């Protein structure tokens, strides 16, 4: 597409032809001559390592090296860093890159084998004997709470963190309320399944003493900092590149993974390229999970359904270690408030160790659990008072004229929890219209007459997006007219090559097909935070816009000198800098780039001809000020005052089979507000992907551990994900309330679709069945058992 009006247009993703035709370049496509790594990982959930015997593996042909914890030196021998410390995390624990004395979950790496290829490495792994002394495993929240056994000897009660946040006196408000509901809820442990697992490739240049690492990550700059620190190298000597990344969904945030340190460490040691590619079973047992939470809620409300006090205690399963701190339960307890005023509020959580895989934020990151808590409560209040579920919600909404709305709590980023903007009543109206809420009873009656069981449900959410501290953007106009854009955060399928090009094309007034975007490459942009928490649009979107504005300003100044015009009289249209209202008085932006580069000008006859009319004194010297910095380029950073809060509402109509209890989604409607839209098509794609994961989390996906801590469904044969056939057609409507916090008015969109999945489907199934749904996911057989356990009417 050409033309310069591209911001806000639903243009197709520019990266797709390349990716969809198999021309993506992933870590495993890099370094075909590299040595390859396989790991001996713990087959036990909890054990002491009594000995490791590698003798039988040593004569495997093609073996390059075998390493255990004893071989690790310097800071590599220390535990991995704890990324987000928090005062409430009194007992944070991280693992060693290779287990030292003890293993705490199935899949924990113990021995690293490097060989000619992966086959040889795996064969050698098979010959290594690890002697274990078994310890009792702690599996699941109940066992962790009972604390009959401990995951870490020095962590009493298995409690990594205990935290309370409150505003007002919720217990007193609830005690005084005329109506109270209590709920016991559970969301099971699950995980994201990116098409591409993790992968790392490292090359050490001994002459240059520099390291180049390719890794499938969401945060290449963090990986770079971690490698430099752990391997005791100057940051300047390390480059980390995230090439094409086949999905991340949060699981690739943790930096560094053991493998992200071990592969570069080995490459330096062996003086050879080394790589490792995670296989699917490794992804199941040694990447990261999330979701698992048990919640107890009490809510007090008046006779109109308005909340007077809300109290939640939750137990969060954080797995064996806490590399990512307690971010997930903090997100749950600060974002479950949704679009509502809760009255007095008290949230308390326990983050518990179990002998299962670690937890890192998975798309939604604690919000699906929070949304489930609040939205189940809203439905329970409606049921208790015999009110329509939309009416109860509406009565509790924060109103548009109450924005900005300060909850009096501290958000996950340590700043006050203040909603910046949103119009929840308008969104609800749109949703009711879209799904036909008011006509549903008619539809239900007709369905009932045919012996069908149908239900409608809804759920709302508010999502803090665009967390800081900063993100940067670089923009340069090349002498051939190409506009090079770089930002340091990474891309895993969000369409950043398209949206950042849209932003810059719009700001600079150039055709979008002249704009080329690079992300996630520390060679191109050094300082960045990463792609998570739906922050790229807000952070890098605004950063590249600010950088482009700098470039535009300079372009107008330089062109003004060349055209002998006041920059204020100039505009850039379709790549031409022109004097407003004076046809013919123009100069291509590419020529302005040449003028900004005196050396290049000296060799550019065309540029000289183009600027002849300004009669330069020296024909080899561009007609621009001597003291201007060379180059038509600019760098800028965007740092938000605080997070911006996107919001949305989903409604679903389901049918449950009266005999088989099969659950079918008949309709799925979304109203979403992420402020100004850069690209509505991409946002809808993001919502669709999120809804698919929300449907998965509500009806299919869970991690099934047995009592010994063995993951029973660690393959795609047993871990059920929705196919396209199970994902409903998603009907979407947008509302755009721009954020007042950033120049482009953006809020994030990347996680929205997944957040209300369990809440909305529980609401709809409950409506179809007439009894409370308290635990998700729910399968047909579980629904059947629930039916059987209901008291007779
Ligand atoms: N966008 C827009 N207008 C807005 C807001 C967003 O056009 N007002 C566009 C953005 O420019 C971007 C996309 O929508 O192209 C998502 O934007 P944003 O909300 O900023 O989210 P991020 O780009 O930071 O992506 C992170 C987010 C998260 S946290 C997870 S998890 C997730 C997700 O994105 N993982 C994904 N979407 C994913 N999509 C794919 N294909 N793969 C993943 O791993």
From TrEMBL:
InterPro entries: Ald_Oxase/Xan_DH_a/b (IPR000674), Ald_Oxase/Xan_DH_a/b_sf (IPR036856), Ald_Oxase/xanthine_DH-like (IPR016208), AldOxase/xan_DH_MoCoBD1 (IPR008274), AldOxase/xan_DH_MoCoBD2 (IPR046867), AldOxase/xan_DH_Mopterin-bd_sf (IPR037165)
Domain Aldehyde oxidase/xanthine dehydrogenase a/b hammerhead span(s) in chain numbering: 21-136
Region (Disordered): 612-640
GO MF term list: iron ion binding; oxidoreductase activity
Keywords, in A-Z order: Molybdenum, Oxidoreductase
Protein name: Xanthine dehydrogenase family protein
